[in-house]
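Section 5.1 Outputs to date
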Amino acid sequence: VQLQASGGGLVQTGDSLRLSCAASGFNFRIYTAGWFRQAPGKEREFVAAKNYRDGRTSYADSIKGRFTISRNNARDTVDLQMNSLKPEDTAVYYCAASGYNRPTSAEYEYSYWGQGTQVTVSG
C-alpha cells in the first residue's frame, strides 16, 4: 500500500501550485481521498476530501474557493489545485485514503497516508 504525494515547492504569495498523489497496492477508487496539512509547530489539519461514489467534496473554510480537489479513478490519483496561495498555506501536505463513503475531515477515519510534500509560500 502506497500513497505518493508530489508537486510541492517554493512559491510566492498569489501563485498557484498543483499537488498530485498516486495510489498503489490497494483499490483506491473505492476509497474517499483526502488532503491534510501540517504547518510548523501546529497540528495536522484537514484541507479537502472527495468521496468515490458520488464525488461529493468537502473543504476547510480556510481554503474554500482557492483550492480544488479532483481525482482520476482510472489512474488512481488525486490532485489538489491550489490557487491564490498565502504564506499561511505553508505546510507539509499529506494525501490520505479513507474507507468511509463520505468526504470526511476526521483524521482517524483515514487508513492510509502518504509521506507528505512540502509547500512553502513566501510573502
